[in-house]
């Protein structure tokens, strides 16, 4: 039973990149003796193990071979050389809602998606109620998914994926999808899956998520393992590699178009985002009169001039309750290696309920420069009798003018 | 409870080649998936249509009627049974074949959203595309029997030949579809080649004419893999053309050859298709 759940032994993967898509007719007509193709090693001599029940992080900049490695773990592609062994059923959370058909109802899609993920009909029958409950879409389960909101779609997809009872869960940036209230449930569910003995591989650009979830982290760079072990060391190596890449880019003067494939321009990482209660210790529970203290640390990997730094509070149903950003007065230019330490004090004048707080960092033009850190979920115990989202602290002053009954014929 | 005992499957990937034994084992394990996906394909196709799956039988029927009316005017073939029934008996098998291989050719590429994220044997995609037409073929076969009775022929013992006819149509179409689906991943113009080829292929198949209508060339028609299917449908309805039997062996031979070719294609490429999608 000491067999690792995942064993990768000097795995290498070569892709053949075609300069133009090969065409049968062209080939047959010998119009071109051969297509120009260039081999490319996406992953080279990668080796590591992951034990049962371990949460392993995989980080690296874009193009470092992470996706290729994930594809091999999911069995979608095979290594050109070396060996990959995965014990048990793999559920790729990269595949949330994959194969959902717009015209089919939620129920039909659950059965199809469940079968695709390797469940038998009977197993899906057994888990069906659980899936619907987790996805919170009971009343829409017989509605075609084309009428679903994107949140409902992702919730259902996630619910089926985790219901597949995986031995190995592959999580790729999953924390950045879905509505905010649901993310807490996902993280809880992942912890539950891990406790049941499953192995989880987390791939993310989000260092706060990696730090929260992973005991051990592998850093990939140019298809090779540069670090395998302590997560803190992995993150600092990752930052060094990012900074090197930056320098190269600046020299090539291509910096402006950098990382246009993401919805942010990676220049900083939010490394810490914690909520401290009135007594100064981390907490998730507050009373509505308490002062909340958010502590944020962001490390810059590229220069940012006068960044905007903001915080938003969402209700459990995804309504923005509050949002504010600095920036107008913070004209400082941050350089690579600088660490911004922020303390945000807020009086949480909120009604009872679950709220989620996010912080963000953007250029003064409003372009995000850091991946979204996982939101802080907090539970507010409000004053009795307060409904809604905020506690505006109404003071009721009641006076009564005694009137005659029936109402007078005054007009 | 140990996780390894819960799901005893172990995935071992050492090199890009998948042994045929492993391919067959995984395919067998995916049989439920295959049926579920084929059903989905079929029902999704007609879900939003006005008369639903009536279209699955309506189109071949219109096709047969048009062909029968037009050709009856210009050429008169001497055929077994009434000419419209004769044409319809040919249409049932041909339509299943042509729509099956068209769908199968694009199936691996078109499902890239699934195939780049989750693994199951890639042969499931073309097979699914072909099998989704089985419901439609079965309905048209029933209509063929009704059609035949309407023209005064009483369906008899030979009607049971429609069952092996459908079986042959399925295995042949799956075999062709497996090969074309795999080739399409590498050469993205294959689906156009297939479309063009089907246009000519239709006339080289005795769908609306009997074997002997082509004069001395008729033995060549026997080598067309679809001839066997069409003639077997005919044997189950209006009666097959004389001298048709060798076409059956040709069909089976082609099927066997293509299945072997497919086995080697998927052995080599099953685990690397995703690289090109």
Task: Please tell me about this protein's structure.
The complex is a heterodimer of chains A (411) and B (277). Chain A has two domains: 6-235, Rossmann fold; 265-381, abc- transporter (atp binding component) like domain (Coagulation Factor XIII, Chain A, domain 1), CATH 2.70.50.60. In chain A, 24% of the residues lie in helices and 32% in strands. Chain A contains eight helices and 19 strands. Chain B has one domain. Chain B contains 13 helices and one strand; from the N terminus they run αβαααααααααααα. Chain B has helices spanning 3-6, 20-29, 31-47, 54-74, 83-110, 112-115, 124-131, 134-150, 162-186, 190-203, 218-222, 225-235, 245-269, and one strand at 10-13. The chains are: A alpha/beta (411), B mainly alpha (277). Chains A and B meet through helix 1, strand 4 and helix 3 of A and helix 1, strand 1, helix 3 and helix 6 of B. Strand 4 (81-87) of chain A pairs antiparallel with strand 1 of chain B, so a sheet runs across the interface.
């Amino acid at each position: 039973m000491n067999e690792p759940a995942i064993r990768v032994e000097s795995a290498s993967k070569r892709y053949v990149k075609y300069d133009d898509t090969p065409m049968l007719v062209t080939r047959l007509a010998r119009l071109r003796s051969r297509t120009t193709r260039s081999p490319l090693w996406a992953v080279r001599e990668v080796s590591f193990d992951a034990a049962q029940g371990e949460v392993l992080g995989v980080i690296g900049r874009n193009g470092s071979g992470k996706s290729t490695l994930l594809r091999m773990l999911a069995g979608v592609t095979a290594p050109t050389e070396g060996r990959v062994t995965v014990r048990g059923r793999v559920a790729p959370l990269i595949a949330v809602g994959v194969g959902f058909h717009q015209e089919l109802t939620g129920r039909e899609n659950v059965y199809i998606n469940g079968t695709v993920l390797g469940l038998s009909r009977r197993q899906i029958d057994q888990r069906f109620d659980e899936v619907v409950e987790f996805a919170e879409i009971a009343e829409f389960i017989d509605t075609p998914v084309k009428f679903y909101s994107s949140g409902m779609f992702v919730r259902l997809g996630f619910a089926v994926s985790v219901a597949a009872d995986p031995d190995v869960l592959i999580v790729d940036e999953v924390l950045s999808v879905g509505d905010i209230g649901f993310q807490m449930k996902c993280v809880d569910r992942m912890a539950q899956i891990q406790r049941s003995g499953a192995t989880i591989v987390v791939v993310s650009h989000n260092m706060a998520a990696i730090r929260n979830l992973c005991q051990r982290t592998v850093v990939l760079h140019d298809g090779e393992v540069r670090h395998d072990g302590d997560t803190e060391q992995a993150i600092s190596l990752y930052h060094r590699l990012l900074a090197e890449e930056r320098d190269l880019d600046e020299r090539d003067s291509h910096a402006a178009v950098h990382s246009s494939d993401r919805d942010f321009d990676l220049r900083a990482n939010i490394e810490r985002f914690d909520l401290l209660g009135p007594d100064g210790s981390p907490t998730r529970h507050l009373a509505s009169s308490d002062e909340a203290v958010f502590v944020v640390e962001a490390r810059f990997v590229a220069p940012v001039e006068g960044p905007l730094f903001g915080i938003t509070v969402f209700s459990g149903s995804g309504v923005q309750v509050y949002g504010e950003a600095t920036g107008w007065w913070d004209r400082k230019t941050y350089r690579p290696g600088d660490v911004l330490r922020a303390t945000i004090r807020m009086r949480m004048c909120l009604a009872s309920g679950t709220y989620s707080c996010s912080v963000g960092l953007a250029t003064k033009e409003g372009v995000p420069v850091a991946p979204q850190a996982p939101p802080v979920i907090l539970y507010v115990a409000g004053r009795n009798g307060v409904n809604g989202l905020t506690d505006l602290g109404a003071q009721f002053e009641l006076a009564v003018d005694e009137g005659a009954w029936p109402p007078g014929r005054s007009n | 409870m140990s996780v390894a005992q819960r799901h005893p499957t172990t995935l071992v990937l050492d090199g890009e080649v998948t042994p045929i034994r492993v391919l067959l084992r995984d395919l067998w394990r995916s049989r439920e998936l295959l049926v579920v996906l084929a059903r989905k394909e079929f029902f999704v196709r007609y879900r939003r249509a006005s008369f639903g799956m009536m279209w699955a039988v309506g189109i071949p029927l219109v096709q047969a009627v048009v062909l029968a009316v037009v050709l009856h005017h210009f050429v008169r073939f001497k055929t077994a049974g009434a000419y419209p029934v004769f044409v319809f008996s040919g249409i049932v098998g041909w339509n299943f074949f042509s729509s099956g291989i068209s769908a199968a050719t694009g199936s691996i590429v078109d499902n890239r959203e699934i195939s780049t994220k989750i693994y199951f044997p890639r042969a499931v995609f073309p097979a699914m595309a072909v099998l989704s037409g089985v419901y439609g073929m079965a309905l048209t076969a029933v209509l063929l029997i009704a059609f035949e009775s309407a023209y005064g022929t009483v369906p008899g013992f030979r009607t049971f030949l429609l069952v092996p006819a459908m079986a042959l149509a399925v295995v042949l179409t799956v075999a062709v579809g497996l090969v074309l689906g795999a080739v399409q991943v590498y050469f993205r113009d294959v689906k156009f080649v297939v479309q063009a080829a089907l246009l000519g292929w239709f006339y080289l198949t005795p769908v609306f004419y009997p074997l002997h209508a082509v004069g001395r060339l008729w033995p060549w028609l026997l080598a067309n893999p679809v001839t066997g299917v069409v003639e077997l449908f005919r044997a189950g309805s209006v009666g097959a053309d004389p001298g048709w039997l060798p076409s059956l062996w040709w069909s089976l031979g082609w099927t066997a050859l293509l299945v072997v070719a497919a086995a080697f294609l998927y052995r080599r490429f099953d685990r690397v298709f995703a690289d090109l999608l």
